[in-house]
Amino acid sequence: MLLDKESGASNRPDDTTQPLPKIVRTVADLRKDVAAWRAAGETIVLVPTMGALHEGHLSLMREGQGLCNRVVATIFVNPMQFNRAEDLESYPRDNNRDIEQLAKLNVDLLYMPEVEEIYPSGFATTVSLPSLSDCLCGAHRPGHFDGVSTVVSKLLLQCLPDVAIFGEKDFQQLQIIRRMVRDLNIPVAIKGGATVRETDGLALSSRNRLLSSEERTRAALLYEVLISAVAAIKAGRDTSEALRDGRMRLAESGFTSVDYFEIRDERDLTLHTGEQTSEGLRIFAAVWLGTTRIIDNLPVALSKRTRA
């Protein structure tokens, strides 16, 4: 088992690879390091994750390195955002591999708190944004975004970075965090990172590891259906027809179920009614393959002839 920088050693027989990132597990230690960087006039970017890192996460960290002097990554599987105990239990975890990947990127600091550090005894506060969280994933995962906004608000306040980066694959989450930061006057700039995809178009996700071989092949059809719907709408097809055809194709392609397949305004996530302009619209989808849920989204440019 790898040892982190808290112990100052590694049990690898030939320790000639990149040094492991420094790991802190308490708010006090996190703030101590951030304060030292601040005193030296350096800027900090925070990239929150739940671990099981993939190229999508790593792309956010590379982007952060281009924005600030120091990169802080977090790994914390947040129990508050899981509305089913079995989902929390099955969430993929591979801390040793994650630490190795962060070392290769020269990430400056890894914050890996225990649950008790984030939610100490008697913790009773929830951050909730129902106007943005009651639709899309929020409608199918009650309480999920309350857990997300609560833990992200804590991570931002614990670190107080200059910038925090979140992936656009979880676009609803990104917009909720942007609104929360604005509403609560948290002095952090929130930046979205582009979705990273496999060669067949499947958006990278830690949960993709849970797919069987057959399910993994089928999963790529979601992106194909989204692309087809966007192309049809751009060509002037009625949006309601394009969405209906997309849902039908997903059902016929063997997806277990479709939670949603719809167009919403990017800014406030309101459902597209045909009155919006061609700017700021996005198509959102969530489907199931067996016990694994897959989400994706793409921007939509409507032609002048398009109607909902």
CATH fold node name of the largest domain: Rossmann fold
Q: Strand share of the residues?
A: 15-25%
User: Widest sheet: strand order?
Assistant: 1-4-3-2-5-6
Number of domains: 2
- Which structural class best describes the helix and strand composition? alpha/beta
Shape annotation? globular
Q: Quick check: average pLDDT?
A: 92
Give a verbal description of the structure.
- This protein has 308 residues and is of the alpha/beta class.
- Strands 1-4-3-2-5-6 form a 6-stranded parallel β-sheet, sandwiched between helices. Strands 7-8-9 form a 3-stranded antiparallel β-sheet.
- The N terminus is likely disordered.
- The chain has 2 domains: 172 residues, HUPs (Rossmann fold); 95 residues, Pantoate-beta-alanine ligase, C-terminal domain (Pantoate--beta-alanine Ligase, Chain: A,domain 2, 2-Layer Sandwich).
Question: What would you say about this model in short?
Answer:
The protein is an alpha/beta fold. It has helices at 27-39, 55-67, 85-90, 95-104, 115-118, 130-133, 136-140, 144-159, 171-183, 213-219, 221-234, 239-252; strands at residues 22-24, 44-49, 70-75, 109-111, 163-167, 189-193, 257-265, 281-289, 292-300.
